[in-house]
Amino acid sequence: xxxxxxxxxxxxxxxxxxxxxxxxxxxxxxxxxxxxxxxxxxxxxxxxxxxxxxxxxxxxxxxxxxxxxxxxxxxxxxxxxxxxxxxxxxxxxxxxxxxxxxxxxxxxxxxxxxxxxxxxxxxxxxxxxxxxxxxxxxxxxxxxxxxxxxxxxxxxxxxxxxxxxxxxxxxxxxxxxxxxxxxxxxxxxxxxxxxxxxxxxxxxxxxxxxxxxxxxxxxxxxxxxxxxxxxxxxxxxxxxxxxxxxxxxxxxxxxxxxxxxxxxxxxxxxxxxxxxxxxxxxxxxxxxxxxxxxxxxxxxxxxxxxxxxxxxxxxxxxxxxxxxxxxxxxxxxxxxxxxxxxxxxxxxxxxxxxxxxxxxxxxxxxxxxxxxxxxxxxxxxxxxxxxxxxxxxxxxxxxxxxxxxxxxxxxxxxxxxxxxxxxxxxxxxxxxxxxxxxxxxxxxxxxxxxxxxxxxxxxxxxxxxxxxxxxxxxxxxxxxxxxxxxxxxxxxxxxxxxxxxxxxxxxxxxxxxxxxxxxxxxxxxxxxxxxxxxxxxxxxxxxxxxxxxxxxxxxxxxxxxxxxxxxxxxxxxxxxxxxxxxxxxxxxxxxxxxxxxxxxxxxxxxxxxxxxxxxxxxxxxxxxxxxxxxxxxxxxxxxxxxxxxxxxxxxxxxxxxxxxxxxxxxxxxxxxxxxxxx
Length: 678
Description:
Elements: E1 6-8, E2 18-26, E3 35-41, E4 53-54, E5 66-73, E6 78-85, E7 95-101, E8 112-119, E9 125-131, E10 139-148, E11 151-161, H1 164-171, E12 174-178, H2 181-190, E13 201-205, E14 215-217, H3 219-222, E15 227-228, E16 244-245, H4 274-291, H5 293-300, E17 309-314, E18 329-335, E19 338-346, H6 355-368, E20 372-377, E21 401-406, H7 407-421, H8 426-440, H9 456-464, H10 473-497, E22 501-504, H11 513-527, E23 529-536, E24 542-548, E25 553-561, H12 568-578, E26 587-592, E27 595-601, H13 602-605, E28 622-630, H14 642-656, E29 675-676
Parallel strand pairs: 12-15, 16-29, 19-20, 20-21
Antiparallel strand pairs: 1-11, 2-6, 2-8, 3-4, 3-7, 5-6, 7-10, 8-9, 10-11, 12-13, 13-14, 17-18, 18-19, 22-23, 23-24, 24-25, 25-28, 26-27, 26-28
Helix pairs in contact: 4-5, 4-8, 5-7, 7-8, 7-10, 10-11
């Protein structure tokens, strides 16, 4: 679509009640990012209250009309997804504004391929709009949905704000009040929390039915030069109704000795075979999805399911040809008298999905008018690489979409909710904890991606004896397994931190995923190295991982940009102090444009940080910090395995190094995700 154009959604598809909006971008450096936001506007063009402003600290509407689904990596960058249920949008809402904003002085002109895509419940793109004239704007309205004559229409807006999210929010009736950093620090100190509201502001929404309640907003608003807030510093503002999380560590046990086992809602120790594991895992997951609305919605919204009453079933018999078929599960969501239905096929313990079996379920769903088939296994799906070969008959009027879900993603969503974002009640939080305990039990079979595949051993041997030739298809298989592993590492680390963690994929614009993997495989054959980068929200750079199969070493590293002010010796001393808990063999290098800078180990620099300064007084661009460890040899996830060694390397480097490198200019969360239950 062209800028300013509009179109009726009913002319694009017969089913536009539920939509998935994707805002995408990429950058040459791989670390460009933005945050989406959604505003619901009344006929006067203003928000009705604080509940109409959705961003990362207020991601879900109580009625299910809006849900921020989070970021996902793409071939050239990342995209942020928004789930919209237009049938649930209140009648007094006339417009839905779709926007994004950057932080820390960044501009949209630094990003490439700014694009909005709207897809129907089956995942098929209905329209797209590209923004090509972005410059110094730090906030952008990509588009808006609006009512006209009883139907919903879309308008391609492409309007930017140099004043950031604060200017955008003010236009739509949000009165921005900035709490000073000193006041916020005092407020944090009063309840024992640290480092979350120091740069945050509060915004009172004009027309709110509860004017005394403030909504915590991203720091972009607070940085916009707004007036000092009238909200008392000792009071912690909230964005929505109170959410409940559980402590990450359990209380001291009351057991007499360690041999006593705590009673569990979902026991896994008695499972004997794969069939029992699949049946138990399916029933446990689907029952918790139906009982915990936030969790069920989180898993199904990306598949085009509406927000509504959910019921789940197992071992349902459905007629098909000579004999009936029994999918492992069925998910049904009812909204305004309409049903959305998905068949579920589950595999555990690393068992592969069977194409013929899934094909039968797709055919049954098409014949019965169901919307989706969801496969669930330990494997991780990749863009442009299908897990199974299934034919979708596009000639059918009714569309059936095939989706895949990894057990690692299920565990990630459960952990994020119970430890960071919160759920509606303590009982729901406890149910999610029991589910997470079951998924992590060694006997459940729900452990995510745990095997580098059959090509791993011969490829590794070919690297060691230098007989692996470029063009070997097995090298591509290893590269795909490596990418799956990195995606799963990001899910795991994001769940632990409660922050966005995404793999960075560098490729030329327009490169398809399979061509990118082929090029990586060629480089892998030449160098013997598997490389990856992951971006962790709130850190000063991207974390790089290099697995060198020739030396048997795993190298984790990060580049820290030099501060804009101060003296080089002060920078070096501060860096050494920040790394007080890091291993002594950590290597630190001074980064200088166009030449090699000084380098040394942390053990030596602790007494002589000035060794990092270049002798010729060259300008320092930053510092590179790296740590090398031996990697496992086997392809699986045993204690001596390669996958386990990658997890340990990333965990150790983040805990001892990256977590201490955060500086004042990095963004911090503006509000606690929930309230811990003591």
